[in-house]
Specification:
The chain is an alpha+beta fold and 435 residues long. The strands form seven sheets. Strands 1, 2, 3, 4, 5, 13, 14, 15, 16, 23, 26 and 27 form a twelve-stranded mixed sheet that branches. Helix 8 links the parallel strand 26 and strand 27.
């Protein structure tokens, strides 16, 4: 087993996968609008989805509360900027339609200066995407630019600048299927006239989420074929400033393009049988795009990933905080470095709302956790870090005993700190792999 531990610790981290639980009791973190189940237009509800049915005679479906991925990512982005004071890639209006309403928004589209853009991705669509701009204001169909020489053949193709987020996150899902709903009846008092009533539904449940960060993609950018992650203006600016490096030709920058080619063909039938004629055919042409990397990529990658993980450990935000002031920092945070992109830590939490002790309703399924770690032991290249808030989970004593098997048991903030220390960099990584 010792040899296996050393072998795994020397493997290079490509991804960081994890899961977490927040104590959303009570909360209104993400609104679902006005209730559609009543005629009361003053009743605001949280977001829910249906899952399974009860064992009651009516077999009614469970309504499970959730927080959208967009809301979770917004909370994490805001926390990251607040924690680091890094420049903020603010979302702003980019275009208005004919009626004067905003129909296109975006941030800076600059992942070199703005870590947000690097980690969370972006998309900048342009008018005429997929067409050629022969001259200013004129778009035509036809061939694109030669990716090898960079010289336009018949014009320059208008391409969407798009970066898929290296950070994948799930929605936050309520662990409690039933008995989570609360209602707040309130009134708006007026200086003159009758007070106006309104109702707010709120949730009372622990909520779980999972995430997976493609660590190797931080600071690495691909302009291959129609996949363009960096605009030409960004490339020129940062190459000149030596903050961006063009990488040598690599296998992942290779692609194939179908292009027309005129060839001589000898007819085998018809009135032109035996004659040689010219025909246009489509032929696969191997081409190479360009790959770029941020200067001092190894240090920048570790810096950005570390800050992101630490921000998750102190997550804050959500809707209606003035009324509910919900602490959304994780009370449980489990993660590890991997050599693959599987979000392996999922379906390991259970909730027992029959307990009478406030908060102690969550259980970590230790048997499932061990099974996952055993299945992926050749792909886990750091210790498994388990951060738990003392007194929050029911089987805390059982979980803490996992330290005897190589798991690192600490607090949620401590788990984030230890994971950051194990990322490739100057400090020496821990070599104990759970068994």
């Amino acid at each position: 087993m010792a040899d296996n531990r050393i072998e795994n610790s020397e493997k290079e981290i490509t991804h960081i996968a994890g899961t977490y639980v927040v104590d959303a009791m009570p909360s209104f973190l993400n609104g679902g609008g006005i209730s559609k189940k009543t005629e009361d237009r003053n009743y605001t509800v949280v977001k829910t989805f249906q899952d399974g049915t009860t064992n009651e005679g009516d077999r009614r479906p469970y309504n499970v509360v959730f927080v959208s991925a967009q809301s979770v990512r917004r909370m994490l982005r805001d926390t990251l900027i607040q924690e680091t004071n890094w420049p903020d890639s603010q979302i702003r209006a980019l275009h208005n339609n004919a009626e004067g309403n905003t129909d296109k928004v975006g941030g800076e589209f600059d992942p070199i200066t703005y870590a947000e853009d690097d980690a969370f991705g972006y998309m900048l669509t342009k008018k005429g995407s997929g067409k050629l701009k022969v001259q200013e204001g004129v778009e035509v169909e036809g061939k694109g630019e030669d990716e090898e020489s960079g010289e336009p053949e018949e014009g320059t193709r208008v391409k969407t600048v798009s970066r898929t987020s290296p950070l994948a996150t799930s929605i936050l899902v309520g662990l409690r299927k039933d008995g989570w709903e609360g209602r707040d009846q309130a009134y708006v008092g007026l200086v003159e006239g009758s007070s106006q009533p309104y109702k707010t539904q709120f949730a009372n449940t622990p909520m779980q989420g999972i995430f997976c960060l493609n660590y190797k993609r931080l600071g690495l950018f691909s302009n291959v074929g129609d996949k363009v992650e960096l605009g030409e203006d960004i490339i020129k600016k940062y190459l000149d400033e030596k903050r961006l490096v063009e990488l040598p030709q690599q296998p992942q920058s290779q692609y194939f393009s179908l292009e027309k080619e005129t060839v001589d063909v000898k007819e085998t039938k018809g009135k032109n049988k035996g004659r040689t004629v010219k025909k246009e055919i489509f032929k696969q042409i191997k081409k190479y795009g360009k790959m770029y990397e941020i200067a001092n990529a190894k240090e920048k990658r570790k810096e950005r990933a570390s800050a992101l993980i630490k921000a998750l450990a102190v997550l804050r935000g959500g809707a209606k905080q003035a009324a509910f002031e919900t602490d959304v920092s994780p009370k449980v945070l489990i993660m590890a470095g991997l050599t693959c992109g599987n979000p392996i830590f999922n379906t390991i939490f259970e909730d027992d709302s029959t307990g009478r002790t406030r908060g102690k309703t969550v259980t970590i399924n230790v048997a499932t956790l061990k099974e996952i770690v055993n299945d992926y032991k050749d792909r886990i290249c750091t210790p498994v870090f388990i951060g738990i808030r003392t007194g929050f989970i029911k089987n805390e004593e059982e979980v803490r005993k996992l330290s005897q098997e190589g798991y690192i048991i600490t607090t949620p903030v401590g788990a984030a700190q230890r994971m950051a220390e194990n990322l490739p960099g100057k400090s020496s990584p821990e070599t104990v792999i759970p068994h």
